[in-house]
Amino acid sequence: MKKNILILLFFITVVSCKEKTQEIEKTEIKPKNQIQPKTDLLKENSDAIDEIKFMKVDMANFPISEETSFDTYDESYRENHPDGRVYKKLKKEQIQKLGLQDWLKNGTDISVNYELPYSENFRTFVFTFQDGEMELKTFMVTFDKNFKKIDTLQIAYDEIAESWMWTKSEISKSKIEVKDYNESSGETEITTTIYKIDENGKFVTLLKSEPKMK
Q1: Is 3 inside any structural domain?
Q2: 13 inside domain
Q3: How far apart are the C-alpha atoms of 109 and 131, rounded to whole Å?
């Protein structure tokens, strides 16, 4: 009798162990950390590299004469003047990040020209883009440290429809002197407006002159 009881206990133990083993095999082991797909990692790295490249725009030194025109912006002119200004075309993703996509409603390509050392609290860049076929516009734009746009100011302009109007600027640490030229009357009329950038990155008008004949 005692022998039969021992055999029965042994059989029960074997069956119980087998069932536990099957339960363990069926249990799904979930990873503690979800591994990010390789393609997403590559995309993030690519975006980061693009942003770093954008941030490495040349820092200009004051004072600066800004007079970008169709003549100097033309690629053939730049090929013949390798020491001239470099215009770096922005990618679509960079344009959207900077909030400049409205410039492309009638325009093609946006180029970043240089950065200006106005303040450590915000960043200041100069951009040029062709608005339609006949106009070339250059803007100074301020951004916060996260590249959210603060303010914009047009500092150069050229048009080839009638070639009557253009804009040039003299830029220094203390002021931005913008001169608008108009020859539609047959004489050269000049309007001068002086701006400064306040501590928040906003453009403030200091003085605007009456139009004067050259």
Answers
A1: no
A2: no
A3: 9
Between CA 201 and CA 142 the distance in angstroms is 6
Instruction: Check if the beta carbon of residue 71 is closer than 8 Å to that of residue 90.
Output: no
CB-count burial class (<10 Å; 0-12, 13-18, 19+) for 21: exposed
pTM of the model: 0.74
CB 204 within 8 A of CB 97: no
Contact in structure between 179 and 190 (CB atoms under 8 Å): yes
| Domain enclosing residue 192, as ranges | 60-213
In terms of C-beta density within 10 A (0-12 exposed, 13-18 middle, 19 or more buried), how is residue 126 classed? Answer: buried
State pLDDT tens for residues 145-189.
899 999 999 999 999 988 899 999 999 999 999 999 999 988 999
Number of domains in the chain: 1
